[in-house]
Amino acid sequence: GPPIVVLPSRLLWDKGVGEFVEAARSLRRSGVDARFVLAGAPDPDNPASIETDQITAWVDEGAGEWSGWVSDMSGLLREASIVCLPSYREGIPKSLIEAAASGRPIVTTDAPGCRDTVLDGETGLIVPVRDSAALTDALASLLDDRDRRSEMGRRGRLLAEREFSVSTIARQTIAVCQELTA
Known about the structure:
- By secondary structure, the chain is an alpha/beta fold.
- It is 46% helix and 14% strand.
- The chain has 7 helices and 6 strands; from the N terminus they run E-H-E-H-E-H-E-H-E-E-H-H-H.
- Strands 3-2-1-4-5-6 form a 6-stranded parallel β-sheet, with helices on both faces.
- Helix 4 links the parallel strand 4 and strand 5.
- Helix 1 packs across helix 5.
- The radius of gyration is 17 Å and the shape is globular.
- The chain starts with a strand and ends with a helix.
């Protein structure tokens, strides 16, 4: 079937959901055959939460799909062709580490945390924050090149093994603790 672009996140405006939907609209208008999936749920306790009515309206207009909250992330990532998180700010997004570990290319923003999980042009693409046109172009370039997606995914897996494995993170954490207590 057509490639699947997944945005795995709480559905908050500052996760770049609006830009993702705008990119999906633009790509669909230009005839790109792909599926765009919002994978997550609103967070009603967060002031940036997107109302369910808004998400339903996007689905009804054909801008994309909404899977809701996903309990089987590995299954979702197996189906995904590209993982996209156009967030305005993050810590280190677990969803992007999981995407890399699953061998999926990433499109994300030049925001702290996001840019720290991707080697631009090697494991994915980094676009400016709040720039739906740049996001559209980045997604289009990967949707149009299956071999490039595959190579970026392979390199992302290697990056995840090298930089984000449990043993690597544990070793770094212990080193920081030892430095602080010395």
